[in-house]
Amino acid sequence: MAVVARAGGDGGGSSSEVQWCFLQVKGAIDEDVAEADIISTVEFNYTGDLLATGDKGGRVVIFQREQETKSRPLSRGEYNVYSTFQSHEPEFDYLKSLEIEEKINKIRWLPQQNAAHFLLSTNDKTIKLWKISERDKRAEGYNLKDEDGRLREPFRVTELRVPTLKPMDLMVEASPRRTFANAHTYHINSISVNSDYATYLSADDLRINLWHLEVTNRSFNIVDIKPANMEELTEVITAAEFHPHHCNVFVYSSSKGTIRLCDMRSAALCDQHSKFFEEPEDPSSRSFFSEIISSISDVKFSHSGRYMMTRDYLSVKVWDINMENRPVETYQVHEYLRSKLCSLYENDCIFDKFECCWNGSDSTIMTGSYNNFFRTFERNMPRDTTLEASRESSKPRAILKPRKVCTTGKRKKDEITVDSLDFNKKILHTAWHPMENIIAVAATNNLYLFQEKVN
Amino acid sequence: MDTMFVRGLKRKCFDGEEDIEGTLAGIKAIPSYNLQRQSLLDMSLVKLQLCHMLVEPNLCRSVLIANTVRQIQEEMTQDGTWQMINTQSTGQASLDRLVSTDILCRSSRDQAEGKHVPAYGTFNKDFENDQAQDSSDTMSTASAVQAPRNLQSSVWEMENPQENKGNFQKSLDQIFETLENKSPNSVEDLFSEVDNSYYDLDTMLTGMMSNTKMGHCDSLETFSSSTNTASNSNCKSDLNDLDHIVEILVES
User: Fold this and answer.
1) Is B24 inside a domain boundary?
2) What is the residue range of B223's domain?
3) CATH class of the domain at A20-452
4) SMART domains in the record, alphabetically (chain A) (predicted)?
5) pLDDT digits (tens, 9 = 90+) for A245-301
6) In a domain, B185, yes or no
7) Could you give the count of Cα atoms lying within 13 Å of A53 in the half-sphere of its Cβ?
8) Which residues 170-199 of chain B have a CB within 8 Å of chain A?
C-alpha cells in the first residue's frame, strides 16, 4: 500500500537514525559565482573511492578518497583532487547558427576492469569516453634518446642497454579515448551504462540511442517519439536509465509524468513500451500547473533493480516495477511550494530539474530543494530529514542540525519561512556513496561532503 | 492514498488570492480568476517568444509552456470567457495589467534606449522584422502577439473571438516550427545591438538586483521578484529585471 512519509519526524533518539556531519567542502567561497564554476553533475564510481563532478564550463574534476592511515586516523576518508580536465569545449553549430554549450550534463563511470578508470561525460550533443590513468614509474636509460628527450648522436651510442623503470611522482592523466558525436539533434539529458558493460544509451528530448563503447561511428536508435509534424509535439523524454541487472531493459520518463519500461528483445525500435507507469491524477487538485509539476526530472533504479524512483517538482515517488498503476511510496519534498506555483512559474524555478538518489542498501533516498536544503527519506520508518549545505555549518565533524520550513503563520525559533527561502540556492545534484553513508551535495559552485557520524 | 494532494485545494493556483485589489472589491471572484488566467496566458506567450529569440531554447520547457497555453485557451473557449473578457470594464485593474504585460513584451533593446512604445507595437514590429525573410511566417507569427493585444484593446473595440483562437493555435505551431528552423536574421540581431542593450539593462538595474527574494504574488502586477544569478538564460533575468521596473512604476 502507498506509504506517505510524515514531515517532522522527531526520531526520539532512535538509534538507527543517521546523523550527518560535515566532512569537506570544495569550491570557492566568493559571493560572486562564475557561471562556469556551477556544478552540473555529481557521480561516485562503483567503489566510491572516486567522485566526479562536471561543471558548466565543461570541466571534470575527480576526487579520490584518501586511504586511512595510522598517522591521521581522524582524516577518515577525505576526498582530495585526483584529476582535473577539460572534457568539452563550447562549439558553434553553423547550420543552425546556435551555440552548443559545453556544460557537462551527466557523468557515468564504467566499472573498473584494469588499472585505469573510465568514465563517460556528455554535454548537449556529444558523449566522450575518458580514460584516467596513473603513472608513477618512468623508464630511464633509453638507447636512442637522452633523459631530456633529445636524440642522441649516433656515434655516441656505443653499447646496447635495457631501459629500467624508476619511480616518479604520481601523475594522473586523463585522455579522451572515444568521441560519440553527431547522433543527437536535440539536447542530451541522460546517459546510462548497461550491465553488460559493453553498451550504453544516450537520451535526448525526443530520441534514445544505443551505443557500443567501442564503436563511435554508429549508434542504434531505440526510441523515437518525434511526431511527424512538430506542431503536434506535446511530450518529451526527460530521463532514461538501464536496469541494473537486466541488460535488455531500460526505462524513460516524460514531461507528462509517465514512465515507460522497454524491453529491447521485443523489437529493434522500442516505441511500444512493455510497461507504462502513471499515477492517476487527483481531479480536485488540478490547476494550470499540474502538468508542469508532474514532469519527471529524474528516474533512478534501486540497486536491487526491484524499484525505481522518480522525481517531479514537488515529490519523489518510489515505484515497484511490477505495479504500473501507482507508486508504492510518495514523499513530499517541499509541499509548501504548491501555493507558490504561480510565482515559481514566473521566475522559471518551476522548470528546475532536481535529481534524486538511493543509498547503497536502498533503504533511504535523497533529493535536493531550495535554500541549499536537501532532504533524506528513510523508507522503512518512514522518517524524513531536512538538512542544509551551508558554510555556517562547515566546521570539521560538526553535526548537521535538521532544518524546518515554517508553513503556518507562527514561526518558531530556528524555523525559516517560505518567503525567506532563497530560490537561487538550489540543490539539483546529489550523490550517495555506493556502500557507505557518505553523501556529496552540489550547491551551485560548491561541493559539500557529509558523512555519517561515528562515535 | 491521495494524501499527496493538498485536500480541498479547489482554487486554480494563484498566490495571495485573499489580497484582492481594492478596485476589484465587490466584484465576484470569477472575474478575478479570469484576469489572473489572462495574465498567465500573456506571461506564457511572452516566455515562449522571448526564449525563441535566444540560444537554442530548452525544448522541454517550451513544450510545457505551450501545453499550458493550450490548456488556458481550451478552457477559455469552453466557458465562453473569450467574449466575456472583451466586454468587462474593470477600469484601473485592466489598465495596470496593460502596463505590466506591455513592459514584459518590450524587447530589451527598447528598454535600454528608453523608447516609449505603444502596447505591443514595437515588439510586434521586431518580431515581424525577424521573420521578414521567412516566406510564410510573417502573418501568423505576428498574430501571436497581436492576439493578446486584441483581447485587451477590445475594451475599446470588439474583436472576433474565433479569429483570436485561430491565431493562438497558429502561433503555437509556428513556435515549434521555428524552434527547428531558426531564422538567421534573429541571430544577426543577437550579435548587433541586443548585446549592448543587455549590458545597459544590467547596469541600470544593479542596485535592484542585490538581495532580492521571492515576494508575494499578492497583486497581478507585482510578480515574483526573485533574481536568479545562476541562470544561464537572459530570458529569466530579463523578466525579473522588468518585474522591478513594473513594481516601481505601479507603486509610484
Assistant:
1) no
2) 32-251
3) mainly beta
4) WD40
5) 999 999 999 999 999 999 999 988 888 899 999 999 988 888 999 999 999 999 999
6) yes
7) 31
8) 172-173, 176-177, 179-180, 182, 184, 187
Summarised one tens digit per residue, pLDDT across range B85-119 is 444 444 333 333 333 333 333 333 343 444 443 33
What is the Cα–Cα distance from A337 to B157, expressed in whole angstroms? 40
Strand (E) or helix (H) holding A106: strand A106-109
Distance CA A119, CA A101 (A): 20
Distance in Å, alpha carbon of B32 to nearest chain A alpha carbon: 15
Statement: the pTM of the whole predicted model exceeds 0.90: no
Q: Which amino acid is at A215?
A: V
Query: Residue B142 corresponds to which cell in the numbers above?
Result: 505576428
Give contacts of B 63-82 with A, CB under 8 A: 63-64, 66-68, 71-72
Contact B246, B222 (CB under 8 A): yes
Measured CA to CA, the distance from residue B233 to residue B245 in angstroms comes to 19
Structural domains of chain B, count: 1
For residue B236, name the pLDDT band (cuts at 50, 70, 90).
low
Cβ contact B230–A424 (<8 Å) = yes
**Number of CB atoms found within 10 A of residue A71's CB:** 6
Is residue B5 domain-resident? no
A101 to chain B nearest CA, in Å?
Answer: 9
**pLDDT surpasses 90 at B32:** no
Interface mutation vs chain B, best among A98, A347, A354, A446, most B CBs within 10 Å? A347
Q: Which of A33, A35, A97 comes nearest B182 by C-beta?
A: A97
Question: Looking at the partner chain, which of B12, B56, B228 has a beta carbon nearest the beta carbon of A98?
Answer: B56
**Placement of cell 568514465 in the chain:** A119
d(CA B230, CA A57): 13
Cell matching residue B37: 488566467
User: How buried is residue B159: exposed, middle or buried, by Cβ count under 10 Å (0-12/13-18/19+)?
Assistant: middle
Residue range A5-28: mean pLDDT, rounded? 67
Nearest-CA distance from A235 to chain B in Å?
A: 7
Q: Which three cell numbers stand for residue B252?
A: 509610484
Q: Which of A99, A285, A422 lies closest to B55 in CB terms?
A: A99
DSSP string of B168-207, one letter each residue: HHHHHHHHHHHHHS--HHHHHHIIIIIHHHHHHHHHHHHH
Least Cα separation, residue B158 to chain A (angstroms):
27
Cα–Cα dist A350/A356, whole Å: 17
DSSP string covering A155-185, please? Answer: GG--S----EEEEEEEEEEEEEEEEE-S--S
Which contacts qualify for A35-40: CB closer than 8 Å, 24 or more apart? A35/B230, A35/B232, A37/A445, A38/A444, A38/A445, A38/B230, A39/A429, A39/A442, A39/A444, A39/A445, A39/A446, A39/A447, A40/A103, A40/A104, A40/A105, A40/A429
Whether residues A288 and B64 touch (CB distance < 8 A) is answered with: no
Q: Is B7 domain-assigned?
A: no
